Amino acid sequence: MDVKFQNISKNFGSVKALTDVTLTAHSGTIHGLIGENGAGKSTLMKILTGYQSKSGGKILIDGSEIQLNDPRQASKHGIGMLYQEPMDFTPLTVLENFSLGSPYQGRRELRFSLETLTIRFGFHLDPDRLVEQLTVGERQQIELLRLIHCKTRILILDEPTTGISPAQKEALFPALQQLAADGMNILLVSHKLEEVASLCSEVTVLRHGRITHHAHAPFHFPELLTAMFGSVPEQKNKTHCRTQGSSILLFENVEATGERQGLQHCVVAVNEGEVIGLAGLDGAGQSTLLRLAAGLAIPNKGNVQLFGNTLPKSNSASQQAQKLDVSFLPADRLEEALFADMSLSDHFSLRGRQSSFWRSIKKAQTLAKNGIREFSIKGNPEDTAQDLSGGNQQRLLLALLNPHSRLVLLENPTRGLDIRSGQWVWHYLLNTLSPKTAILFSSPELDEILHYSDRIIVFHDGEIVMDKAVNETSHNAVATAMTGMKEAIQ
Amino acid sequence: MLGDLSFPVLIASVLAASAPLIIIALGETLAEKSGVINLSLDGVVLFSAMAAFVVAKETGSLTLGFLAGGFAGMLTGVLVGYFSIYLHLSQVAVGFALALLCRDLAYFLGNPYSRVQGPTLLESKPPLHDILPSSLQTIMTQPLTVWFALLLVFLLYYFFTFSKAGLCLRSVGENPAASFARGLNPSKIQMWAVLVGAFLVGIGGAAYSLSLKPGWGRPQGAEGIGWIALALVIFGGWHPMRVALGAMLFAFLQVSGIGLQDLFPGVPAQVFQTAPFPLMIFTLIFMHYSTRKSRKQGYNENSFQRFIGKLFMSRAPKAIGKSYKQE
Amino acid sequence: QSSAAEENFVFGLLMVGPSNDHGWSQAHFEAGKEIEKHIPGSKMIYIDKVNPADRPGITIPFLVEDLVSKGAKLIIGNSNDMTDGIREAAMLHPDIKFIHISGDDALNPESPDNLSNLMGKMEFGQMMAGFAAAMTTKTGKIGYLGPLINDETKRLAASCYLGAHYAWTNVLKKDASALTFKVSWIGFWFNIPGVTSDPTQVAKNFFDSGADVVISGIDTTEALIVADQKKKEGADVTAIPYDYQGACSTGPDACLGVPYFNWFKGYAHFINNTINNTWEKEWLWLGPNWADMNNTMTSTISFQNGKAMNSETQTQLAAFAKGLGDGSISLFSGPLNFQDKSVFLKKGETATDMQIWNLPQLLEGMEGASK
Amino acid sequence: MKRLSLDILLGSLLVFGFTALVLLIAGAPVLASFKNIWLGAFASTSKISQVLSVWVPLMLCSCGLIYTFRANLWNIGIEGQVTMGAIGAMAALRIPGIEHPALILTLAFFASFLGGGLWGLLAGGLKTRGGVHEIFGGLGLNFVAQGFILWLIFGPWKRPGIASMSGTELLPRDLWLSTFPGWRVATAGVIIAVAVLILTWLFLEKSRMGIKLKAIGQNPKAALLYATSPERYYLQSIIIAGGCAGLAGFLQVTAVYHRLIPSISSGYGYLALLLVMLSGYRIILIPFLALFFASLNVGAIQLPIVLQLDSALSGVIQGCCVLSALLILGLRQKRKQS
Ligand SMILES: Nc1ncnc2c1ncn2[C@@H]1O[C@H](COP(=O)(O)OP(=O)(O)OP(=O)(O)O)[C@@H](O)[C@H]1O
Ligand SMILES: Nc1ncnc2c1ncn2[C@@H]1O[C@H](COP(=O)(O)OP(=O)(O)OP(=O)(O)O)[C@@H](O)[C@H]1O
Ligand SMILES: [Mg+2]
Ligand SMILES: [Mg+2]
């Protein structure tokens, strides 16, 4: 069964996740879909399963248009998806997860089917284990088996190999190829070019919700990388006048849980005045590192040292960090940093360590007005935070930033900003803050990291795979390190 | 030890006293398993008790009375469901307001029927009564509500553990988004769970006014039971068997509290009567504490340990209290 | 409206329980209705469930004020628990007359002159109840469902026991030790869930532990309802409710009879005195009209036989009542010991009204708490 | 503004319609019922002052609840906090050897705040330390407080001679809070209620604590970034809520019942929960809604006297108000989304 996406577009409010995407995937093949974080890959796939509605366009199967309003309809057409974020039920057992959504069968038959399938794919799954005790990879294996069991004919795999060991891959890949050879239509979403290259016969690259590249095997990697991450910008001469001084932040062999794989064997030292970019695929460990430094996550092993003080392993760590003039700006602003229903001047009232009992509304309003002017926020002091556009929310956060910060931790600082606002943010961070301030930031945009940082730390699956000054590395080297290709790192 | 009750009689009284509570708590379990907290229980029990008594009195039919109780419960379930599942309002707020509203509505509408004689459900002899040993005869001579409650425990246990529909319902309570992704309709499933659950709560209320504490009046005698049922669901870790055991424990405390009066003559009688309520809730807190560690580790290797783990670990459905909004 | 109030004599009735409780409050309510019938121009206004659990935040003085504003000239408060409120209201409204049922404020010289007390000598009714129970029981176990522990309830329970003891030893000639008389207190005059013991459960426990007659001393009819349920299930049990002539109607088949109050006589006395301006502060403790016990006009205390009483008991009970009436049977006379074995009455001694009114504890032979 | 008045109109219609329906089912005259409730609440100064004496504790409980609702806590334990406040007050009033009534009353005032506050702290501690949801901790503590007060009334603090449901012995007259001649409501009570209202408004709208509570209620995760520990503020808010409820208990003892009775809280805690929900958590509306609820409570006494109806109708109206308000809110949100 061939699938044709025709002029698909999707808006989330004002965010254009997909614009005019047209693409055909043929049965009997494995079609790769690649792109940087937030390119729109998952959204496109969720539209195909009816999990999300589309804003425009058509979906054709074998040439005839079909309606996909919910996953039930999609599964009737034989469409099944392995979601990127596991869509399963952690408190239930493997067998129960396997049976949910499958056609009705007796328990014994179900168990038998599951066992046969695990053997066929070389997986090791105990049907009675609770899913919460499994790794993400194992959870994806269950989903995969379930989809195959459900006689799926159009199989969508959104990053199926995130937690799968090389040995399991060796079992999985031939099985997938076998399935394709049997006539199944497989759509594979991945960041890992090696995998795509070894499995797919065709690849489509998405960037900012549009198709930027389409290729048949064999693939030319640099071409794909450019299509994914944009043109490789030339190295500008950096005119940083930042003073690098003594070490202020130390990770001593830290281990912590968080994101997908958490963080292991993390040893990092940050000096005064350094700008460090944290690169890596989504969830590879950058955010955990930032949160550890901000005292918002507690290490399981090892210590985090700030300005010579070891952070306590308790809830007071974040207050301790803030006392030491450490600031943290999370990516999810409304969820983690702002109060949706509170006005801008209220936010200014909350800021800082004033000790007075009363708050002066006038003063807060003045502060808010000044902030709005200085940071060109489009809004009034009485507006609530949720009324602001994403870009203006980020400006607000910067306006709220402690101006005496000695260490600024930013998660995706230009998320949702247009190019000019992004440049403005960086200008502010680099030029208005004291040159002794150290900046640690993560970003899915490789260009941004290469452009603004002095040093780059690359994460892969919870480990640091590269830690180099920006001059000693290249766009390609970082990109390959991010995707976990070992040979390219040397 | 406990007054002059012999052991079989004690068991029989505990069974009889716990039956309506079991039915109510299981109704709530059903709703909560699907992710919806129905906090209105305390009022709904009274409202359905009143409705059941009035209908039974007017028609002379116990069956119609029980049905009326069930449908009165279901009516409130419609409100809880619509407000929380379709309007996405706070389940706690809706339930609490409804609890107070239903209680007063029951008192208001039931006033003309207070303290009049109406039909009551009687104990019936079990089959093969005459060949049973006498202690079993005593224990098994019970009103039908007791058998219904016990049957319900097993039915619900079977439903949750072995049936496909039960699995779907549980899955919605754990992760409605994932259920949706697998082709289920979480809102519809939740609505059904709430309605059937509320129907059971109504039956439980009817069991008070038609069997355990026959008649209607202010107070009816079932006041405060709804809150206890809510606590029992947590106490029972959302597991039908354990919920039922909890209800029996509560009934035991109530029945034996009367006998304790003679053992501790210095303590006012009223204290023994209030005691089961806080005791119940503090057992719950204690359980919470003692299982917290093991829940965190949560690794049970062999099947026996798994069995023990399943028996004693209590865990709320993951998505409880949040209704699902489709994107 | 004030002219209408002058033509009519309006009196207010505050009832502690529901006016249709088939017990204490309903007995008062019906007496008020009778007054309306028999005293021309009289009109009752009433409010029931006057207790802090049912009417939170509402106090007696406020309700009195409301009744007074509606023209009430005399106010009756029917519960011992209203003592403080009635006294306070009486002081606030010196020109309105107050009757407090079951209290003894009027005995206190400092209490306001517009406040009188009224009570019935229910001791006799309870003696008859106890008598009927002992005549009926086959197991020799009688349960007494008591409200809360105070002087009034202790003397009523004791009277009941004395009646039962008399029947058991003097009529049936059985061994005193073979009679068990057990008192269980629920904590209030009627059930308040989570606060009092559940009377339904207490009655069940009585029957389950072998008692076959339960005498109720509380305002509501749970004991009879349970007995009726048990009887329908085939058990040979009976119960005796309390307070209200019609109480048997909630479970006629299991009803042995009911000792009840006729408040009409007392009400009429005070109301006529008020109308005729002959009011004086009184403490009135009215007994049965032995000549015609069931005359609602003249007898304050009475006993109504129920369906479940057999004819032999009926005749014996009539003889017993006659004995009580002519003084040939006097149960509060020595030798009598208290529950703790201390002496209450020596041989040959007979208790005074005040000794009975202020009975400090239960009697020897009774089981159950005295404090 | 226009939308608000439209909402109020719609809500009133819903409430009126539902109540009328209930009355019709009960076979009662609809208009006469409403009229009697109205007259029962406002027909005379005595009635108005009785309304005020219900208004005072309702206000105190509601003001307390505003704090916890700000922090997004469901302080259902407020009933027990009123009870413990009353017990605290009574304990102070029973201290022997203090001659000066004003001194004892002041002591009782603080003891009641402390009693309620500590009871709140217990529920808060169960939440932050024990992970027990505040609804269940609070309910359990309500029952414990109920058991405790019963034990006191029937045990150590019982009336000489007879223990009774009617409570402990009456306080000496000089410990009754005084009223204006002809009024039933203690002047001090009204002053305390108004003062607490103003203080609450100041605290929540003008102090840094108020804004921090609001922040924590909205987004405890984000509050961490503003050097604000949710746990600390959870505890603070529930202590203040308990304290305010405790003051209501103090007034119930010294101004209304003049003794300790088992149901001293009179259900005002639960009623205040409804009230605050109805207000949409806005302080400005609370005094008016409290007046509305109080007048329903008091006015409904006329139903049994005049029409032989059960006065539970007031509760039906109150619950219905909240549900209607929720319904309108829900429908608005739904329309906004689509
Ligand atoms: N539910 C949503 N609401 C609002 N915006 C969304 C939603 N889901 C996705 N987006 C936005 O749509 C865009 C595309 O997201 P999508 O998840 O499709 O990216 P992706 O290509 O799968 O990225 P990744 O490689 O990180 O998985 C992003 O900008 C994302 O922020
Ligand atoms: N819910 C709302 N209520 C009121 N105003 C709003 C609301 N949402 C957005 N706005 C206003 O509408 C304008 C456009 O917002 P929008 O989020 O579409 O901007 P945008 O183009 O995405 O900007 P950015 O690039 O900064 O994200 C902003 O000025 C914002 O303040
Ligand atoms: Mg994706
Ligand atoms: Mg935007």
Q: Helix and strand layout, with pairings?
A:
The complex is a heterotetramer of chains A (490), B (327), C (371) and D (338).
Chain A: E1 3-12, E2 15-25, E3 30-34, H1 41-48, E4 56-61, E5 64-65, H2 71-76, E6 79-82, H3 94-99, H4 107-121, H5 136-149, E7 154-158, H6 166-181, E8 185-189, H7 193-199, E9 202-207, E10 210-216, H8 221-229, E11 247-256, E12 263-271, E13 275-280, H9 286-293, E14 301-306, E15 309-310, H10 317-323, E16 326-329, H11 333-336, H12 344-350, H13 361-374, H14 390-400, E17 407-411, H15 419-432, E18 438-442, H16 446-452, E19 455-460, E20 463-469, H17 475-482, H18 486-489
Parallel strand pairs in A: 3-8, 3-9, 6-7, 7-8, 13-18, 13-19, 16-17, 17-18
Antiparallel strand pairs in A: 1-2, 1-4, 4-5, 9-10, 11-12, 11-14, 14-15, 19-20
Chain C: H1 2-7, E1 9-14, H2 24-38, E2 42-47, H3 60-69, E3 72-77, H4 83-92, E4 97-101, E5 115-120, H5 122-136, E6 141-146, H6 151-171, E7 180-185, H7 199-208, E8 213-216, H8 222-232, E9 238-240, E10 257-261, H9 264-275, E11 283-286, E12 301-305, H10 311-326, E13 336-337, E14 343-345, H11 353-357, E15 366-367
Parallel strand pairs in C: 1-2, 1-3, 3-4, 4-5, 5-11, 6-7, 6-8, 7-15, 8-9
Antiparallel strand pairs in C: 10-12, 13-14
Chain D: H1 2-25, H2 30-42, H3 45-70, H4 78-93, H5 101-128, H6 134-154, H7 187-206, H8 208-218, H9 220-223, H10 230-257, H11 268-278, H12 286-299, H13 302-307, H14 313-337
Helix pairs in contact in D: 1-14, 2-12, 3-7, 3-8, 3-10, 3-11, 3-12, 4-5, 4-6, 4-10, 5-6, 5-10, 7-8, 8-10, 11-12, 11-14, 12-14
The structure holds adenosine-5'-triphosphate (2 copies) and magnesium ion (2 copies).
Description:
The complex is a heterotetramer of chains A (490), B (327), C (371) and D (338). Chain A has 18 helices and 20 strands. By secondary structure, chain A is an alpha/beta fold. Chain A starts with a strand and ends with a helix. Chain B has helices spanning 7-33, 41-59, 62-86, 91-110, 134-140, 144-162, 164-174, 176-181, 186-212, 225-235, 240-263, 269-274, 276-297, 303-312; strands at residues 123-124, 142-143. A two-stranded antiparallel ribbon of chain B has the order 1-2. In chain B, helix 10 (225-235) crosses helix 11. Mean pLDDT of chain B is 86; it is low at 293-301. Chain D has one domain: ABC transporter involved in vitamin B12 uptake, BtuC (Orthogonal Bundle), CATH 1.10.3470. At the B-D interface, helix 3, helix 4, helix 10, helix 12 and helix 13 of B face helix 6, helix 11 and helix 14 of D. One adenosine-5'-triphosphate binds next to helix 14 of chain A.
